[in-house]
Amino acid sequence: MRIVATILIVYALCTVAYAEQPSTELTNAQNMYKELLQKIDTKFRPPPEGMYGKYPDALDALKSQLQSKADLDGILAVTKEIDRFKLAQNIPDDAIVQTPPELRNLQQKYAEIPLRIENQKKAEVADLTKRYLDRLKQIQDIYTRAGNLDKALEVKSEIDSLLSNIEPIQLEKPQTQPITPYNNHPASNNVGGNLLGESKDITQEAEISVSDFHPLCPANNVVDGNQDSKWRSDKRGSTSAWFQLTWKSPRTLTGITLRDSKHPTEWTPEMALEFSDGTRIEIKDVPRGSDAEKVINFEKPIKATWLKITPIRLSRGYYFGLSEVKVMGK
Ligand SMILES: [Ca+2]
Which one, 147, 157, 201, 212, has the greatest CB density within 10 A? Predict the structure, then answer.
């Protein structure tokens, strides 16, 4: 219900103000933006039981489960974790055990919750801010067309102030996948016989995660089918930015089509594809801009749960970004 309410209010923000007097539109939009920011803040406030929710209950349930299996070592490990969590109220990486696997899985599952919530909140704030900027531009145009340049400049000042104060949005990546060493796996443009015959576009079945993003260039733009919209990192000149697709279970990947960031000068001529099985493929000839696509059919199918795209070399030290990605697989 909260999401629906937010959408309705934002929609109102984008439409109703046209009918109001121009002198009040900027103030109304500013107030609405502040109010919606507050709603997002309230929505993502940690519950009374803490950021990790029902983790203590889940530990108790696991302890009972291990007791029924007479798993003494397992019970001791869970008891130790129950005591540790009571005081620490967090699940850092160095607290995650190797055995029993049931406890390890539980820890990893709950350890990701704060990061996921924080990422979701950042994405909602970015979406709201984009709508607010769109609305300010509309108001600025209304004043400009009416010849009220003082008011138009006032709105422009608000836009400039907002853009200059926007912080780069850094998304933390939950570390769910085991880290495996990379090995080189040469790409090939040869279609592997009937290999691709059964493949289909499985991009939309994956969850998207990114290193960070500019508020006006969110990650979903990479899979919206529009080559004019893009995701862009806000790490200028950095090759540590990344875009990742993660499927719920291992998939057999056969190829990828990608389009570089839409921009007159930004260009990432060399990118790397990294897979959860350790495979790494380097692409040395990515075409500039989003008009041309780069198609790669893998030499042999790659079984993986995730695929990460990273820059190897950026032209002129600009930002890494992508306009479109399509992954083929089974
Ligand atoms: Ca796009």
Answer: 212
